[in-house]
Amino acid sequence: MNEHHARVCGSAEWAEHLQNDILPALTAAIDPGSVMLEVGPGPGAATEWLRHRVARLVAVEHEEPAAEALAARYAGTNVEVIRGDATDLRLADASFDAAGCFTMLHHVPTVALQNRLLAEMLRVLRPGGVLVGSDSLPSDALHHFHVEDTYNPVEPGTLLTRLQTLGYEQITVSVSETLTFVAHCPADPEKTTEPASR
Ligand SMILES: C[S@@+](CC[C@H](N)C(=O)[O-])C[C@H]1O[C@@H](n2cnc3c(N)ncnc32)[C@H](O)[C@@H]1O
């Protein structure tokens, strides 16, 4: 993230927006179970809200300083912070009840890598587990906001098919001011996940 972006994502206003306007509506109809994965937590605006709704939250963050700051913030709590790449999760198959990615897919540089990340999240979800996510809609303003930063916004019209092709089912994609989505890992343990190309 560029410096300006990091400041906004770490602000109280952003946390308030995510925690009041996005997450309650996005999770209203789902049961997150007891063990949840969050990828790309950044400064932790979603982490803070989610951790009060599950027994254990594992947060996988790619950038070392962000992972270290989050680990220090949540030392001794129900949040475990792992520095890692969510396109290559070092986590066991079927080990999470729920998984979430918020405002982070547009930081994953290619569609193939975004698909790989979503496939990894499916792999670590237990049968019947649920994926929830949100991201900003593509816009010129957002493009300018990402100067000297990765900016690969999700094309909302393609997301449902992408999730379906990866093996998710019961998928809902909503577009308002923000793109939000909910998708489920098939309850059948014989699910077939197509490997996403790098
Ligand atoms: C814009 S921030 C969003 C932070 C937080 N989710 C929020 O909504 O406030 C995107 C975060 O995703 C992280 N990220 C990007 N690619 C990642 C990957 N492949 N694996 C894990 N984290 C990643 C970035 O390092 C950054 O901290």
How would you characterize the overall build of this protein?
This protein is of the alpha/beta class and 198 residues long. It contains seven helices and seven strands. It has helices spanning 3-9, 12-27, 45-50, 64-73, 111-124, 140-145, 156-166, and strands at 35-39, 56-61, 79-83, 96-102, 125-136, 169-175, 178-184. It has a seven-stranded mixed β-sheet, sandwiched between helices. Strand 2, helix 4 and strand 3 (79-83) form a beta-alpha-beta unit. The longest helix has 16 residues, at 12-27. The chain is globular and about 45 Å long. The two termini are 22 Å apart. Bound molecules: S-adenosylmethionine. S-adenosylmethionine binds at residues 1, 9, 18, 39-42, 45-46, 60-63, 66, 85-87, 102-104, 107-108. S-adenosylmethionine (SAM) binds at residues 1, 9, 18, 39-42, 45-46, 60-63, 66, 85-87, 102-104, 107-108.
Which characteristics define this entry?
7 helices; alpha/beta
List low-pLDDT spans.
none
**What average pLDDT do the residues reach?**
92
Secondary-structure-derived class: alpha/beta
Q: Radius of gyration, Cα only, in angstroms?
A: 15 Å
Oligomeric assembly:
single chain
Q: What's the total number of strands? A: 7
Q: What small molecules are bound in this structure?
A: S-adenosylmethionine
If strands are numbered along the chain, what order do they take across the biggest sheet? 3-2-1-4-5-7-6
Strand coverage percent:
15-25%
Distance between the termini: 22 Å
Helix content: 25-40%
Counting DSSP H or I runs of 4 or more residues, the number of helices is: 7
From the spread of the alpha carbons, the general shape counts as: globular
